[in-house]
Amino acid sequence: MRHSAGMILLSVSILSGASLPTKGPVPVPKPAVPGEQATPTPELKPGVPPKGAEINRKTGAQPRVEEKEAAPGDKTKDDSIEEVFLPVKEEPAEEHASCLADLKALGGTFTDTKRIDDGKGCGIDKPVRVTAILPGVALKPEGTMRCATALALARWTKESAVPAAAAAFGPDTRIATVNQASTYVCRLRNNATAGKISEHAHGNAVDIASFTLGNGRTIAIQPRDEDGTLDGAFQRAVTASGCLYFTTVLDPGSDAAHEMHLHLDIIERKNGYRYCR
């Protein structure tokens, strides 16, 4: 009977709009089942969510990842950020002397010049100014570079370019001049305003614009992948053989910056890797 009376009073209270007593035990909420409670979704930045952020499996949202600002001097793979420039690298005297002896034995005409240090990593510790690569083969205009670069250029010219010219244009053909577009110059790669320093700025590179033959005819470097003439065959032959002497060879087919010359350099890479294209 007491239970029936209580139920009657409760029903009357609800129907009449009366409030329930405020005193008494407070209901305890049911504990959440582990794994079912959704994680609040942080504010997202507009655009594509950052790579590597963990997706919330329940909501599908991807939380914002705060980017850490690079500290001064930190290196980055982005070429648009200037690299940390190192001082001009010193060359051992005995190695330089040995190189000069080899270059002289090939008959090149050159002059030892004073150390170059133009700042920002540009310079050559022991530069040489080359006026002739081989006997009777001039370098025009004369170029300043490391001895190791001049030696690679002389060997490539003697062992590859000269025989290729004779094979393509006749046994009596000789190369009178190798016309260069750039040797040492303090600049970034491809003359960019930001990015990595060029190998030209270390004296490690030379750009070849053309070859002038003994009869006065000039073979210009230009796109020749589809050139079925002997001029095209000659250029492709000297380009392919260049990788035997240089660690980098870029021809007119490599990119827009090398449409009218061959870029040759002697940069050192791990495990003797060479980049030729």
Summarize the structure.
With 277 residues, the protein is α+β, with helices and mostly antiparallel strands. Helix content is 23%, strand content 21%. The longest helix is centred in the middle third of the chain and has 23 residues, at 147-169.
Please tell me how large the radius of gyration is: 37 Å
Helix tally equals: 4
Q: H/E order of the elements?
A: HHEEEEEHEEEHEEE
Number of strands: 11
| Tertiary shape | globular
Helix content: 10-25%
Give the biggest sheet. 9 strands, mixed
- Rounded mean pLDDT score: 79
Distance between the termini: 100 Å
Note the beta-strand portion: 15-25%
| Unreliable residue runs | 1-24, 32-82
Helix and strand content put the structural class at alpha+beta
Written description of the protein model:
The structure is a single chain. The chain is an alpha+beta fold and 277 residues long. The protein has a domain at 93-276. The chain is built from 4 helices and 11 strands, in the order ααβββββαβββαβββ. The chain has helices at residues 2-16, 93-105, 147-169, 230-242; strands at residues 109-112, 116-119, 122-124, 127-134, 137-146, 175-182, 205-213, 218-220, 248-250, 262-265, 275-276. The strands form 2 sheets. Strands 1, 4, 5, 6, 7, 8, 9, 10 and 11 form a 9-stranded mixed sheet that branches. Strands 2-3 form a two-stranded antiparallel sheet. A hairpin with a 4-residue loop joins strand 7 and strand 8 (218-220). The longest helix has 23 residues, at 147-169. The radius of gyration is 37 Å and the shape is globular. The relative contact order is 0.10. The model is unreliable at 1-24 and 32-82 (pLDDT under 50). This is Extensin. Residues 26-80 are annotated as: Disordered. Residues 98-277 form the Extensin-like C-terminal domain. InterPro entries: Extensin-like_C.
